[in-house]
Amino acid sequence: MSRGARHTISVIIGALAFYLAYSYWDGYAWFRSLVGSVLLSLLTEILFKLIFKSESFGNPLKPGALLARVAVLSYFRHQTPTVYSRFSWVIRTIYFRSNVFTKAVVERASPAASAALLLALQRKGGLQSEAGLNFAHLKELARRATSWKDYRLYLLGRASSDFPSVRRRVEECANVDGYVIGDDLRTVSDVDLIGKIGQSNSERVHLFTTTSQLSKDFLDQLRGVMGSVESISFYICSPLMLSHRALQSLDVEYENPNFCTNFSQVVTSDDGVVHRAADHVRRVISVLSALNSLIKLGGPDKVRIKLFTQRYPGIKVRLLEVNQYVQLQPGSLSFQNNLYRFGLDSDRGEFVREVARDLQSLEANKLVLSVATSRADFECLKNRVLSELAVHLVSIGLSANDLCQFGPRIEAKAKSSLSAEILRDVISRLRKLEHLIASDQHLAQLQTAKGTAHISVGMICIDAGAILLIKKADAFYYGKYSIMAGHVEHGEGPSEAIARESLEELGVSPQAATLACAPFELADSCRHGAAAHIWFVFRCEVDVSRIRTDASEVDHHEWVPLVELQDWEERLTDGAVGVLRKLEMIR
Q1: What mean pLDDT comes out for the span 130-135?
Q2: The whole model's pTM is what?
Q3: CATH, domain 176-250+275-438, list 3.30.1330.10, 1.10.8.60, 3.10.20.310, 3.30.870.10
């Protein structure tokens, strides 16, 4: 809150006190009223300074720290977007002085204030920081916050949505004294896990990781105990950029303030800002390298790969079925690495068996996808991954020349022996795609792992709670309805194609066109003979009053209420059904 605003509020309070006192006090009312109003104004100013002076949060008994605790506890009790918005506004108002975050705040924040700051800093990319503030300061905030049990309870509660066994024991898990945080987390947990594996015979191991985090040291330690391992189930984010969304869901890490980013890991532009497209390549390389290393280590007989398809769970699990041991590292915030996590372990057989059952349910609930692990299967998966990666990069505007430029930076951050090979492959695919787009053929198409696919665009237009559907005039579609859609022609990009199709079919230009999701492949046929399409689906606005459909393309159009859309499924083309399911607008 600005100094001027505080002065204004204190003056208003003083004036109100003067008016009330003058109206109701006898005798020297004007004098007592004046003195009372001045004193009340001064008290208001003092209170504001106590509350809104960030340094006061170092002492848990001062009003600032008390307010931080009240605000964050309120959010912990009611974890809704509305409450979070109010909570983060309070914390930002107090701490982010003129939208600048300072080292003094980090150094003096109490555990409750540290937890409040970690929560409020998420996705505040525009926040400026004081010179010298860096990732190490955020780690210190996380270390201090984790010493507060209520924060550990919050992390466990958020992280256990896919693990009922943990949800039932949140209080018990958060109350442990032997938790580990910060840089010690990986070292301590690795040593303990390897030691337990070495004590087993025919151990069945379950390992979670986000995109890699299999260090050479850990692989060397694991290699030393592989004789005690029957199987390793390795859970990791799917590297398929079109079919799945797990990797792209990690983009929230790019939306945090700069000092919350570990720049030693990510790929950056010349201006020091994270380059999302190039970093997507780095992440794909990391995942493929981790899979390759583990398959080499254990072979197809021992290694089982489980890909997270939509998102990475808010908890890391490492479990030994035979030796009855589990490590849990909860954390569902948007920051990198393990800095916001804390780790705990348990060898209580009943609890370990419950967590093992939760792991089995992940696949049953389609949260993970099992893939075969022979060398031929891995090469097939890699080919599909790189094909989808190339299409994804084209869709977000990264050219082959751009990727050549960022190649050395990607290799330096990925630190993988596969980097050079993968980069050459993707650059080659990008050049072929660019050639196809620029060629004289009528329709753009490409070879995917499933065969030849045309490139298509679709438009989701919603007005007053209803979606625009068109009835195709072409007999090929048997009088069924569709979203407004069409093919990408050679020499144009998806955004140009959607503008052209909208003008041709509806007579209006789309406005505010944005991609509704990452491009994806559907097994749907078209009148040009293709049995599959790569879809670029845009959310657009149109001037409803100016729609004039072309009778040669569109029989007529309908505005269908979204609440009734599910009932229209049988009246929709296969392509429209696939798109609407992908966007979760129908089941």
Answers
A1: 85
A2: 0.70
A3: 3.30.870.10
